[in-house]
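Pipeline run #58 for the internal structure catalog. This entry was flagged by the ingest filter as a single-chain record with no existing model, so it goes straight to prediction. Upstream metadata was stripped on purpose; only the residue string is passed forward. Reviewer on rotation: M.T. Logging verbosity set to normal.
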Amino acid sequence: MSTLPHRPVTWRVNGETRATEIAELLARLATLMPEQPPDTEALLPKALPARVLLTVEEAAERLHIGKTKTYALIKAGEIESVLIGRLRRIHIDAVNAYAARLTRQQATAHRAA
C-alpha cells in the first residue's frame, strides 16, 4: 500500500475549476444578501403570558403535594377553586395565599411554643 500525498480533487467545468465556480457563486450570493442583519426578535417565538388558572395537578405540583391532598384541601375550603363547566381550576393567587397562610400559621405556632 503506497501513501500518496493528499491533494484536493478539482474538477473542470467549462474550463474553470470547481473551487473557482464555488467562489464566484459565493461572491454573487454576498451581493444579494442585505447588509443589515435580520431582525432576530421577529424570528423568536412569542412568550406565552403566565397562566392564571391552574389545574388541580398543576397546583399540587406548585405546592409539592399530591393531587389527592389538593382535592382534600379544596373540599375543606383551604384552597379556593372555581368550576368552568366540569373543569376545576385554581387561581394562582389562591395557591400563593394558601402557602402564605401556612407559613404564618407555623410561624405563630413556633413563637407560641
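catalog note: The radius of gyration is 33 Å.
catalog note: Strands lie at 12-13, 16-17, 53-54, 82-84, 87-91.
status: ready for reviewer M.T.
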